């Protein structure tokens, strides 16, 4: 590897999801700026990464030339940004994602987030997942939109609602704002022309769309489809009932609201954590021909850098975008990193002297150092930290971790590189364990940086030194407690007083005896006709008899045989009944086909019964019809079950009977209820519960 | 792992191998029955006990009724054993259903035992005659000394300070499996001999006894008599004196040999002489897996492969020499080291790593015996590693087949050999194959079969 | 090779602690029943025959394995006591079956005498329902087994065999349950063989919980055969065998007020007494319940 001096020409290839916006915002001023059509088309598929195709740009040459490399440069001719914005209408399904701040009034600073506009609705997702105004509104609820003039102080867009109230968004630049403005304008125009009535009726709804009727949003539909796809059993049920018209779509789903809800929750709940690989793994790639060194920074890596190196994070917040652009920042960072990696101490020192920003990256991370100091204070006072001091093998030759192909043994003289291996390892481990508190997918590097600030505020509990000290002392006290100086530790308890234990246990015994089939007959207590004296005398007599007799009559051969036979019979008869898990084994003993069929029927019956019983009491004609339909279906299944019962082979008829019986019973109960209800209704006459019986 | 050919524990196989008549005669003694019963596998013991008072046959099927399906193999082992030893007799039915019935002789003896207990043919002598008997400790010391002396003589006649009264021919018999003596050469321990030395005392004893009994016919003694006498002896009370007068000729001859082995101690009174059973003999009826006869251990192994053996016995140093390099010998301490060379020498002699390790474990000094593991792991691992180093080449007796008449025949033969799992090598071009020698007969049959 | 890896004890070596019921009332009554010509001669067993079967069983246990150990504990109505321990005799006692049995009988006689005197000292009210102190002898057995556990790493596998005749004594419920649980904790199975008229609920639970065998032999004149074929089976062999099991133990509780078996009921939060109806006050411990809950049946009324 060649050491590269500070003056070497270098390109940095930035690629990754939220860099698209970064570039858009910061680089449009610098001339050449372009997007591929594919990249834009991806915009309307939110789950994929935005701008996953690299973007090429060539800013004004500064000290270093930075190129964002594009794989096949020659093939593409790109429209200008304005052209791209104007061309949106040609894509009917297009949607746009733009970073913006949401404001409730004009004066307040606003909440940073991403505004997403699609044909039907617009959504705003703040970068910090915990802040409140995450909302989702249909364009149907929008009355009009206003905007500030180009070149005025702020790039604002005001979306006014029918019901009153408005959303105000503050954009980074006017060009961005204009894209949104145009989009809203078009959508509104379209809505008003197509279905003005609908707009009137529509109730603006900030949360989920109403599920009433069969008019379901595409999203809702999709969610249901997805559920059905994932769960074959559900699909079967759906096919069986909804397709055949026994249940309506909404009835079917009404009992499964929790599934739908869960599906929604799952979307937001789960996040991947940090990778367990070290940051060190962002290795520069070198092409042999030139002296260029490429760093590949992805959103994830940046997120991780922020998490692991709070000083870099702080610097980012300080410098970007006021002092330098994000790209410059990362370039600096990468330079520093490279210097650090290559151990070019002299160069690093020189560079640091020359460039204070660069020096910042090379310095020790003082935030971390502070944290460490805090942590050391909190260490258990009884812990002997010297005990394992000698276990540090890092200074020995032949130990360490491979960094970029070279062994990274720490170098004690070098102050700059002293924050190395073990510290990095520890910090990394801590961050990975802490987990990720925010979405990286939200798209904007600024957003990530800010979200880190928020999460830190939330998580770091500033405990005062005082309480901490006290805690430490308590801990020390607890640890050094001498057992023999302590009084006996006994939980205060009151002993249980029971008036008459006989009362208590008699019942237990009687119960147990009942279960044994003794019925308590025979004699429950010993016949006391004999006196104690007599009894003892008998015992003694018997003992001496035993002595005299010897053991002549231990057992007669024929009796012994009888006993053994009895035991054998008992065993062979019980053997077949004693099974570990009765239900499972009963099922397992059936042929697979019958088993599957029975299980299918069982799920069907369950579903039907659930609907059946939930329709009582019948208060509307609708319910009445539903019950009728369900009853029909149940009757069908009933017949099928009967058929199974009769057709099954005699070997397992008993087992099948055992399984089918409870199903039949459940159905019978439902039929009985139906009959009873029907009779009551006809007896009462025309208007039970205020509805007419139809037919 | 090489096969261990010295298996001393199958003494009962010898009993089982006796002709039925003799076996039934043996079973007239309650002690034999008891000893046999104790040798049975646990399941067989249960079967024997439950049949004890049943005189009519019980079907095999009803016995199987008790057995869980996964333990059927154990059941079979148990019943096979019972049948081998003629504790159960199989009674074939016309309906092909096998039934078992207990051997009436055995049954009678056992019933008698339960009711009256076994009666020895001789009672201990009253103290008035013997006046003082050795204490149990003395007796044990005597037995151990006697036994070690015998062992030393067995492996190295020149080292023994005191020779036992065994005739050289007897010693030769014992040495048969243990030493290989060639002309003009000092006898060398064979592979079996090393293994023998590493076994625990009880196992060694059984081996010697077995040799003693099998060679008895050459001396004109009925092995049945010896077996029953030995088993009977094992039920005598430790430390009591029994009169020599109660013995038959055969027995009194045998008892002298047994005294040489340390099984009994002979004493001469004014008028009478008597013998006192030692622990060695009373432990004979204990199944081999019960080694309550265990002596205190004496070996400590350090992680640096050094061995410290607190022992005054020459025998111990002889044994240690088998697999370690003895460095110092002090009055009560032997210091050695396990080295690669010493172990290779041991492996050369057919001692396995497991044997060495288990020897070290079993004889661990009480101080280290409590620890787990008693022998440091690095030492045991290294011993095993050195052993596997040697076993990189495996010798398999095999046959080469060539000159096949046609490709088809060759392929059929190689397929057949592969099916049997014995194909070691084949060369389809030259139509040659090498097959495990054990399968030669089958291969031959296959090749001769008319196609 | 097994010859080298010898284990200290073979797997079937067991320590069996046998508890015998020496309840004078029961045995005398049972005998008088037989004398009175009650038709089921196989349903009762004279004490002498019971003893002989039991002693033969003990002997056969020591016969099976040299390291088997047998301890006999007598359960009286006033006391319990160790009768015989084969371990103290050394291992040479195998040829002395006669001595063993005569010693057992002698010690048993002494025990009965002592028990009788104790009863007189305490002025036991004659005619009250007298039950044997099973809890006491169970505790003795467990103590003995604990001692064996602590004597060293190598010991035979212990189990307890309870030969019970007289009916359960309800007042011992807690003590017996405690013994059962401590047996369960130390993995000691409790086998029970009931030679009395009634099944024993306590022992049934004991065997169920500890994984032992519960058996009430229907044919008592063949008692030895039951003992030999079922209870002599060592723990190792039990892994391979079906042993007679009762059809099932019903753990449903019965209410204290009407002694009905119930599936659902009210439980006193203080003493865990069970009632089928709501009470104002617990009849067992006297705790007062202040909250009157809704009748569980009312919910179903609302439904229809």
From TrEMBL, chain A:
GO cellular component, as recorded: transcription factor TFIIH core complex
Q: Which InterPro entries match?
A: BSD_dom, BSD_dom_sf, PH-like_dom_sf, Tfb1/GTF2H1, TFIIH_BTF_p62_N
- Which residues lie in Basic and acidic residues bias regions? 405-417
The protein's matches in PANTHER family, at most eight in alphabetical order, are given as: TRANSCRIPTION INITIATION FACTOR IIH-RELATED
One Pfam family of this chain = BSD
Which biological process annotations from GO are given for this protein?
Answer: DNA-templated transcription; nucleotide-excision repair
Domain BSD residue range list = 220-256, 289-341
- Under what name is this protein listed? BSD domain-containing protein
Q: Which family does it belong to?
A: Belongs to the TFB1 family.
Q: Which Gene3D superfamilies match?
A: 6.10.140.1200, BSD domain (1.10.3970.10), Pleckstrin-homology domain (PH domain)/Phosphotyrosine-binding domain (PTB) (2.30.29.30)
Q: Which PROSITE patterns match?
A: BSD (PS50858)
Species of the source = Vanilla planifolia
Localization, UniProt: Nucleus
Q: What is its main location?
A: nucleus
The UniProt keyword set, sorted, is:
Nucleus, Repeat, Transcription, Transcription regulation
Renumbered residue ranges of the record's region Disordered: 398-417
UniProtKB/TrEMBL annotation, chain B:
Top-level taxon in the UniProt lineage: Eukaryota
GO MF, any single term: double-stranded DNA binding
Major localization listed first in the record, in broad terms: nucleus
Where does the Transcription factor Tfb2 C-terminal domain start and stop, copy by copy? 381-448
Q: Which GO terms describe its biological process?
A: nucleotide-excision repair
Localization, per the record, is: Nucleus
Q: Which GO terms describe its cellular component?
A: transcription factor TFIIH core complex; transcription factor TFIIH holo complex
NCBIfam families named in the record: tfb2
Record function comment: Component of the general transcription and DNA repair factor IIH (TFIIH) core complex which is involved in general and transcription-coupled nucleotide excision repair (NER) of damaged DNA.
Return the protein name: RNA polymerase II transcription factor B subunit 2
- Give the organism, scientific name: Vanilla planifolia (Vanilla)
TrEMBL record, chain C:
Cross-referenced InterPro entries: TFIIH_Tfb4/GTF2H3 (IPR004600), vWFA_dom_sf (IPR036465)
**Protein's UniProt keywords contain Chloroplast:** no
One Pfam family from the record: Tfb4
**UniProt keyword annotations, A-Z:** DNA damage, DNA repair, Metal-binding, Nucleus, Transcription, Transcription regulation, Zinc, Zinc-finger
Record's superkingdom? Eukaryota
Compartment(s) of residence: Nucleus
Molecular-function GO terms, alphabetical: zinc ion binding
Give GO cellular component annotations, separated by semicolons: transcription factor TFIIH core complex; transcription factor TFIIH holo complex
Q: Does the record carry Transcription regulation as a key word?
A: yes
Q: Name one GO biological process term.
A: nucleotide-excision repair
Main function: Component of the general transcription and DNA repair factor IIH (TFIIH) core complex, which is involved in general and transcription-coupled nucleotide excision repair (NER) of damaged DNA and, when complexed to CAK, in RNA transcription by RNA polymerase II. In NER, TFIIH acts by opening DNA around the lesion to allow the excision of the damaged oligonucleotide and its replacement by a new DNA fragment. In transcription, TFIIH has an essential role in transcription initiation.
Q: How does it assemble?
A: Component of the 7-subunit TFIIH core complex composed of XPB, XPD, TFB1/GTF2H1, GTF2H2/P44, TFB4/GTF2H3, TFB2/GTF2H4 and TFB5/GTF2H5, which is active in NER. The core complex associates with the 3-subunit CDK-activating kinase (CAK) module composed of CYCH1/cyclin H1, CDKD and MAT1/At4g30820 to form the 10-subunit holoenzyme (holo-TFIIH) active in transcription.
Q: Family, per the entry? A: Belongs to the TFB4 family.
Its name, as the record gives it, is General transcription and DNA repair factor IIH subunit TFB4
Taxonomic source organism = Vanilla planifolia
Query: Could you read off the lineage of the organism from its UniProt record?
Result: Eukaryota, Viridiplantae, Streptophyta, Embryophyta, Tracheophyta
């Amino acid at each position: 590897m060649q050491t590269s001096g500070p003056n070497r020409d270098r390109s940095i290839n930035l690629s990754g999801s939220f860099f698209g916006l970064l570039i858009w915002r910061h680089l449009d001023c610098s001339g050449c700026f372009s997007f591929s059509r594919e990249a834009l088309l991806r915009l309307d598929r939110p789950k994929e990464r935005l701008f996953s195709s690299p973007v090429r740009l060539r800013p004004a040459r500064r000290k270093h030339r930075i190129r964002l490399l594009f794989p096949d440069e020659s093939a593409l001719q790109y429209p200008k940004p304005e052209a791209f914005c104007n061309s949106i209408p040609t894509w009917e399904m297009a949607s746009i994602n733009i970073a913006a701040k949401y404001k409730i009034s004009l004066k307040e600073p606003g909440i940073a987030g991403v505004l997403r506009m699609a044909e039907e609705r617009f959504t705003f997702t703040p970068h910090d997942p915990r802040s409140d105004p995450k909302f989702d509104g249909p364009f149907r609820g929008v009355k009009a939109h206003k905007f500030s003039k180009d070149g005025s102080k702020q790039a604002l867009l005001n979306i006014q609602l029918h019901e009153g109230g408005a959303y105000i968004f503050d954009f980074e630049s006017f060009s961005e704002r204009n894209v949104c403005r145009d989009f809203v304008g078009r959508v509104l125009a379209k809505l008003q022309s197509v279905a003005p009535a609908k707009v009137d009726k529509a109730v603006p709804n900030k949360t989920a769309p109403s599920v009433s009727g069969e008019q379901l949003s595409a999203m809702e539909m999709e969610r249901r489809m997805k559920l059905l796809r994932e769960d074959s059993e559900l699909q079967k049920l759906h096919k069986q009932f909804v397709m055949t018209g026994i249940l309506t779509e909404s009835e079917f789903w009404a009992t499964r609201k929790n599934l739908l809800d869960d599906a929604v929750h799952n979307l937001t709940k789960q996040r991947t954590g940090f990778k367990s690989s070290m940051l060190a793994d962002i290795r520069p790639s070198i092409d042999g021909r030139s002296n260029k060194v490429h760093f590949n920074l992805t959103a994830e890596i940046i997120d991780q850098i922020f998490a692991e190196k709070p000083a870099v994070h702080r610097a980012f917040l300080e410098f970007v975008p006021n002092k330098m652009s994000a790209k410059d920042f990362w370039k600096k960072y990468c330079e520093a990193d490279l210097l650090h990696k290559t151990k070019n101490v002299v160069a690093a020192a020189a560079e640091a002297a020359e460039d204070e920003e660069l020096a910042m990256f090379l310095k020790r991370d003082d935030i971390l150092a502070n944290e460490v100091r805090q942590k050391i204070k909190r260490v258990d006072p009884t812990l002997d930290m010297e005990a394992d001091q000698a276990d540090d093998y890092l200074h020995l030759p032949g130990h360490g971790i491979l960094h970029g192909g070279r062994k990274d043994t720490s170098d004690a003289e070098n102050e700059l590189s002293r924050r190395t291996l073990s510290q990095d390892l520890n910090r990394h481990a801590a961050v990975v364990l802490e987990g990720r508190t925010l979405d990286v997918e939200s798209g904007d590097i600024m957003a990530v940086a800010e979200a880190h600030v928020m999460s830190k505020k939330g998580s770091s509990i500033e405990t005062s030194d005082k309480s901490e000290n006290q805690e430490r002392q308590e801990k020390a006290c607890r640890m050094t407690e001498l057992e023999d100086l302590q009084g006996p530790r006994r939980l205060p308890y009151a002993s249980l007083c029971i008036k008459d234990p006989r009362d208590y246990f008699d019942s237990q015994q009687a119960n147990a005896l009942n279960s044994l089939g003794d019925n308590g007959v025979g004699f429950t207590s010993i016949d006391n006709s004999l006196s104690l004296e007599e009894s003892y005398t008998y015992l003694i007599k018997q003992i001496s008899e035993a002595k005299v007799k010897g053991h002549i009559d231990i057992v007669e051969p024929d009796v012994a045989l009888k006993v053994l036979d009895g035991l054998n019979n008992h065993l062979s008869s019980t053997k077949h009944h004693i099974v570990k898990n009765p239900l499972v084994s009963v099922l397992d003993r059936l042929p697979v086909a019958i088993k599957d069929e029975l299980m299918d029927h069982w799920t069907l019956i369950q579903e039907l019964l659930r609907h059946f019983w939930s329709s009582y009491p019948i208060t509307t004609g609708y319910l009445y019809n539903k019950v009728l339909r369900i009853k029909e279906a149940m009757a069908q299944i009933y017949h099928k079950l009967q058929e199974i019962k009769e057709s099954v082979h005699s070997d397992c008829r008993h087992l099948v009977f055992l399984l089918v019986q409870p199903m039949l019973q459940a159905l019978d109960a439902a039929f009985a209820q139906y009959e009873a209800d029907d009779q009551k209704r006809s007896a009462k006459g025309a208007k039970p519960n205020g509805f007419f019986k139809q037919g | 792992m090489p096969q261990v050919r010295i298996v001393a524990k199958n003494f009962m196989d010898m009993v089982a191998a006796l002709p039925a008549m003799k076996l039934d005669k043996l079973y007239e003694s309650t002690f034999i029955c008891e000893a046999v019963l104790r040798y049975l596998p646990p399941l067989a013991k249960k079967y024997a006990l439950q049949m004890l008072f049943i005189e009519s046959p019980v079907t095999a099927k009803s016995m199987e009724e008790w057995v869980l399906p996964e333990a059927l193999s154990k059941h079979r082992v148990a019943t096979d054993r019972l049948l081998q030893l003629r504790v159960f007799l199989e009674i074939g039915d016309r309906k092909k259903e096998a039934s078992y019935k207990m051997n009436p002789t055995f049954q009678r003896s056992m019933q008698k035992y339960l009711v009256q207990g076994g009666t020895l043919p001789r009672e201990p002598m009253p103290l008035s005659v013997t006046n003082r008997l050795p204490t149990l400790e003395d007796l044990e010391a005597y037995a151990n000394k006697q036994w070690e002396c015998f062992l030393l003589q067995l492996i190295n006649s020149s080292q023994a300070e005191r020779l036992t009264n065994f005739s050289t021919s007897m010693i030769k018999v014992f040495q048969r499996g243990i030493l290989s003596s060639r002309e003009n050469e000092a006898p060398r321990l064979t592979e079996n001999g090393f293994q023998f030395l590493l076994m625990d005392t009880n196992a060694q004893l059984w081996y010697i006894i077995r040799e003693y009994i099998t060679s008895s016919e050459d001396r004109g003694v009925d092995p049945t008599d010896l077996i029953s006498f030995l088993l009977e002896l094992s039920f005598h009370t430790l430390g009591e004196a029994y009169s020599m007068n109660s013995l038959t000729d055969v027995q009194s001859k045998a008892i002298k040999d047994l005294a040489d082995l340390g099984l009994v101690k002979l004493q001469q009174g004014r008028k009478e002489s008597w013998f006192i059973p030692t622990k060695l003999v009373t432990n004979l009826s204990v199944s081999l897996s019960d080694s309550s006869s265990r002596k205190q251990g004496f070996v400590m192994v350090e992680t640096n492969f050094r061995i410290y053996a607190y022992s005054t016995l020459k025998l111990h140093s002889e044994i240690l020499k088998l697999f370690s390099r003895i460095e110092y010998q002090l009055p009560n301490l032997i210091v050695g080291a396990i080295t690669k060379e010493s172990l290779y020498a041991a492996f050369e002699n057919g001692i396995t790593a497991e044997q060495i390790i288990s020897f070290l474990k079993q004889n661990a000094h009480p101080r280290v015996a409590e620890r787990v593991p008693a022998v440091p792991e690095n030492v045991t691992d290294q011993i095993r590693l050195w052993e596997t180093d040697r076993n990189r080449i495996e010798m398999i007796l095999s046959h080469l087949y060539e000159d096949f008449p046609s490709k088809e025949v060759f392929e059929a033969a190689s397929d057949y050999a592969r099916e049997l799992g014995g194909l070691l090598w084949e060369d389809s071009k030259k139509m040659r194959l090498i097959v495990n020698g054990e399968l030669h007969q089958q291969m031959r049959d296959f090749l001769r079969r008319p196609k | 090779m097994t010859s080298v890896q010898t284990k200290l004890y073979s797997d079937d070596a067991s320590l069996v602690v046998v508890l015998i019921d020496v309840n004078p009332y029961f045995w005398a009554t049972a005998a008088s029943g037989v004398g009175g010509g009650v038709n089921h001669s196989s349903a009762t067993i004279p004490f002498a025959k019971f003893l002989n079967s039991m002693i033969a069983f003990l002997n056969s246990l020591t016969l099976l394995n040299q390291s088997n150990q047998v301890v006999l504990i007598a359960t009286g109505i006033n006391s319990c006591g160790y009768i015989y321990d084969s371990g103290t005799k050394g291992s040479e006692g195998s040829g002395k079956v006669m001595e063993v049995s005569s010693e057992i009988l002698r010690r048993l006689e002494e025990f009965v005498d002592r028990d009788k005197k104790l009863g007189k000292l305490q002025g036991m009210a004659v005619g009250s329902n007298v039950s044997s102190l099973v809890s006491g002898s169970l505790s003795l057995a467990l103590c003995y087994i604990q001692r064996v556990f602590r004597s060293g790493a190598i010991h035979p596998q212990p189990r307890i065999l309870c030969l019970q005749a007289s009916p359960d004594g309800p007042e011992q419920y807690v003590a017996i349950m405690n013994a059962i649980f401590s047996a369960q904790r130390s993995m000691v199975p409790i086998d029970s063989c009931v030679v009395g008229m009634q099944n024993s609920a306590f022992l049934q639970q004991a065997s169920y919980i500890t994984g032992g065998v519960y058996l009430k032999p229907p044919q008592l004149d063949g008692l030895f055969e039951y003992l030999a074929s079922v209870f002599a089976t060592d723990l190792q062999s039990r892994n391979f065998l079906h042993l007679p099991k009762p059809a099932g133990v019903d753990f449903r509780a019965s209410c204290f007020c009407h002694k009905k078996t119930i599936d659902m009921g009210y439980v006193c939060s203080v003493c865990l007494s069970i009632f089928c109806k709501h009470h104002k006050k617990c009849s067992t411990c006297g705790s007062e319940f202040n909250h009157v809950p809704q009748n569980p049946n009312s919910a179903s009324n609302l439904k229809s």
